Amino acid sequence: SDVIIRSTGLWTPPHSISNAQLVESYNAYAARWNAEHAGEIERGEREAKQPSSVEFIEKASGIRSRYAIDPDGILDTSRLRPKVEPRPDDALCLMAEAGVVAVKDALNRVGLDGGDVDGVICSATSMQRTYPCVAIEIQDAIGATGFGFDMSVACSSATFALQQAVNAIRCGQANRIVVVTPEITTPQLNYTDRDSHFIFGDVAVAVILERADWGNPGWKILSTRLKTQYSNNIRSNQGFLNRCEEPARDEDEMLFVQNGRRVFKEVCPMVAEMILQHMGDCGLTPDDMKRLWLHQANSNMNRVIAQKVFGREYADAEAPTILDEFANTAGAGSVVCFHRHNDDFETGEKGLICSFGAGYSVGSIFVERVAA
Ligand code: CO8
């Protein structure tokens, strides 16, 4: 059978952090660090830390705030990371808890419950543990049948998982699959790094996919395409070998690092080219696109890509951003954007969900609104 997206759902942490709060905290940390290293700075042995700025962040990225699991721990200059309480093994883990809320939101919107699902894919940049899979914990918590597994492709985690779900339904291995992307990004951020302290936020998003021949309304998946090309310009060295490595790594190396300028320059043309190629191969043209739900890393980047794809100036509604509220939510971004900006579509109207990021990776999914 063909496949439709039946519904989507969202979880956000209850609190968010504004740029002003984040910059105030970083600047207090930087001033203290400079005072502590005043001698070395004076002797030219170290560089003083420059202050961060709200104006820079908004202009360079379009980000104004981000949801976070623990703003207090992040803003506390003696800590600069969220505080997470370990839970007993018989309690839902943090990622599963966030994921379950998003999944139930998606199910409730169309009057379904967990028992109607026969596959769960949990796909996110970082996984809370190695095993058992978070997806299997979510499968159990919602009462789904079938199978569950985890996967991870950084910023393309959701789109790559959507293709796996589409394939599984097309092959008859499942009838209704939930793809859930709980992106708990803030523990991976280096809040002592001015270049990246503002970039990410926490969120979870879920997508219910099912057989199109059941005849429900939703979004028909017209075509999916994935592409990867190796790059070290976005990297985290965190992994299961860390505790055995000798000499031990600096903790900073286990956090998110990127060469943002290079990423911008290399990824924009790669994405625009891939979208246009995929579009042409599907017999579609830019004029067929009512909306592009692009990956949410940077508003300037999205402007460059959308202009290349449309081949003209375009209105904000044709490629909306959610960066102001959510910041970059890694693999979840393009799907959160789709979730927030799709209720004005008429039957037959088409759009593109497209992720891009670390790897590099690009995931492109054309959808069409279908009625019952
Ligand atoms: N405040 C004030 N000034 C600053 C700040 C700051 N906070 N940060 C940097 N500056 C300074 C720089 O030091 C630089 O100064 P100088 O010119 O003296 O060297 C100047 O501002 C300009 O800096 P940049 O050239 O770096 O500024 P850009 O305009 O390039 O903007 C961005 C920086 C926003 C990082 C931009 O390059 C960008 O967004 N690039 C694209 C990045 C991207 O898309 N990355 C994808 C990442 S997401 C992803 O793949 C997911 C991975 C999984 C994540 C997991 C969760 C943690």
UniProtKB/TrEMBL annotation:
The cross-references to InterPro entries, in alphabetical order and at most eight, read: ACP_syn_III_C (IPR013747), ACP_syn_III_N (IPR013751), Thiolase-like (IPR016039)
Q: What are the residue boundaries of the Beta-ketoacyl-[acyl-carrier-protein] synthase III N-terminal domain, all occurrences included?
A: 149-228
UniProt xrefs under Pfam families: ACP_syn_III, ACP_syn_III_C
Q: Which domain of life is it from?
A: Bacteria
- Would I find Iron among this entry's keywords? no
- Keyword Electron transport applies: no
This protein's UniProt keywords: Acyltransferase, Transferase
Which residue ranges does the record assign to the Beta-ketoacyl-[acyl-carrier-protein] synthase III C-terminal domain? 282-368
- UniProt-listed Gene3D superfamilies: 3.40.47.10
- Protein name, please? Beta-ketoacyl-ACP synthase III
